[in-house]
Amino acid sequence: APLPDLVIVGAGLFGLTIAERCAEELGLRVLILERRHHLGGNAYSERDPETNVEVHKYGAHLFHTSNERVWEYANRFTSFTDYRHRVFGKYQGQVYSLPMNLALINQFFGRSHTPDEARALIAEQSSEIATEDASNLEEKAISLIGRPLYEAFIKGYTAKQWQTDPRELSADIITRLPVRYTFQNGWFSDTYEGLPTEGYTAWLTKMADHPNIEVRLETDFFEVADDYKGKVPIVYTGPVDEYFANSEGRLSWRTVDLEESVVDTDDFQGTGVVNYNDQDVPYTRIIEFKHFHPERERTHLPGKSVIVHEYSRFAEEGDEPYYPVNTADDRAKLLKYRELAKAEPMVLFGGRLGTYKYLDMHMAIGSALSMYDNKLKPHFTEGAELT
Ligand code: FDA
Q1: Active site includes 310?
Q2: Phi-psi region of 314 (alpha: psi -120 to 50; beta: other; left: phi over 0)
Q3: MF terms per GO, please (predicted)?
Q4: Which residues touch 240 (CB under 8 Å, ≥6 apart)?
Q5: Which terminus of the chain has fewer Cβ atoms in its 10 Å neighbourhood, N or C?
Q6: Run of H or E including 307
Q7: Which of 180, 228, 241, 276 is catalytic?
Q8: What are the CA-CA distances from residue 330 to residues 169, 172, 195, 359 (Å)?
Q9: Strand partners of residue 46
């Protein structure tokens, strides 16, 4: 078969954005190699066959952005519902409204506070430790929000997320812990927010629906690399350490175990996401997917609901890498991989795995559009070098 003009490794949002732009605007023939059995990367979702509820297979995905260009671009492939994300947190038998806000403070301290009273209370409680003196995550959190709120809403959850006592975690994992002195409890504060009306997979499939784009599923790049390396430009969105056969050592990641079940009730928890802040509850959150699409209520099987318990842990070889751990050791390795990546001829590294960065979906799209503008388009239209 003739060589394509461009090979993309990974059919996630980063790879799909590059593919769509190069095929549609430059008329290039693009081949996407994807090792999973589906496209879409971690944003992939499926309708549960029994209940017809859309389930996000790699953890809950909520779209939000303040980037006009990304919003306009995403809307070429899907419309979005008016879903607004809210999160609640359970602690010692009570349910609180997150992120920390006036409703939570009033409920937690058992009486009403005006915004000024709440501000004064938190300022007093957090004066125990000065932020610049904090030598670990626990001290940093106490210096920002005080001990009572830290112990209820940060300590247990963080310990479960990291399987590590917060006193052993680095202070710079958190830079700020926002407390809202209002009753506003929308989880995101971006200009645009919503869920793809027909679901994630319809959106992501439409991005690849172009006569110049071929998606080859269940194909691992490393099995066919010799056919393409050095012969055509490649955009690689897999793990950067894996590309270089872990020559500088493995980068560390956290993963999440997602335990899915169908329960015999119309409504399990009354909302999409409930965090579990008690340390002795082993999971960090429960997701109930039907609440992401209240407008689909009539299409869901009555009397049933799909829920997922999430358990967080360090990723071992073979686990899905989800969140970069980003220790000092990881950062040192990453610098070496970046040097190697820069020197790799005709290969560009992108996306969350290729750059070892947690990227929200809008950031993955935004950075792919920048790579297209700054590297691929100049290369294919003006012959600029690909570095
Ligand atoms: P992504 O990981 O999606 O795609 C990379 C693809 O490359 C994968 O499909 C992989 O199989 C493939 N690949 C890797 N190596 C390969 C090889 N050797 N050969 C062939 N294929 C290979 N964002 C947001 O905006 N709102 C949210 O609520 C969430 N929620 C969320 C929850 C969880 C648990 C996670 C981990 C992430 C989120 N995100 C999110 C982030 C979102 O998932 C992220 O922005 C996108 O996945 C980024 O897309 P990429 O294309 O960079 O990577």
Answers
A1: yes
A2: beta
A3: UDP-galactopyranose mutase activity
A4: 251, 334, 337, 341, 349, 353, 354, 355, 356
A5: N
A6: strand 305-314
A7: 180
A8: 15, 15, 34, 17
A9: 55
Does 160 lie in the same domain as 21? no
The model's pTM is 0.96
CB neighbour class for 247 (10 Å; exposed up to 12, middle 13-18, buried from 19): exposed
Q: With respect to residue 238, please indicate whether it lies within any of the assigned structural domains.
A: yes
My answer on whether 25 and 79 are in the same domain is: yes
- In this structure, what token pair is assigned to residue 36? 């999973």
> Is position 45 within any domain?
yes
ipTM for the whole complex? 0.99
Q: What is the layout of strands, in order, in the sheet containing 94-98?
A: 94-98, 87-91, 273-276, 285-288, 305-314, 253-263, 323-324
Residues 119 and 237 in one domain: no
User: Can you list the alpha helix ranges (DSSP code H) found in 309-385?
Assistant: 328-343, 351-355, 361-371, 377-382
CATH, residue 137: 1.10.3110
Query: How many domains are there within the chain?
Result: 2
Q: Are residues 45 and 163 in the same domain?
A: no
Instruction: Report the separation in Å between the CA atom of 144 and the middle of ligand 1, taken as the mean of its atom positions.
Output: 32
Same-domain pairing of 113 and 205:
no
**176 flagged as catalytic:** yes
Owner of token pair 């209002």: 182
Catalytic site includes residue 298? no
pLDDT in tens, 274-332: 999 999 999 999 999 999 999 999 999 999 999 999 999 999 999 999 999 988 899 99
- 160 lies in a domain? yes
360 is catalytic: yes
Distance 353 CA to ligand 1 centre (A): 8
Q: What count of other Cβ atoms lies within 10 Å of the Cβ of residue 114?
A: 10
Out of 20, 285, 288, 356, pick the active-site residue: 285
Q: What is the pLDDT of residues 67-110, one digit of tens each?
A: 999 999 999 999 999 999 999 999 999 999 999 999 999 999 99
* 25 and 122 inside one domain: no
**Residue 204 is which amino acid?**
L
Are residues 106 and 221 both part of a single domain?
no
- How far, CA to CA in Å, does 287 sit from each of 54, 100, 292, 308, 364? 12, 20, 10, 5, 23
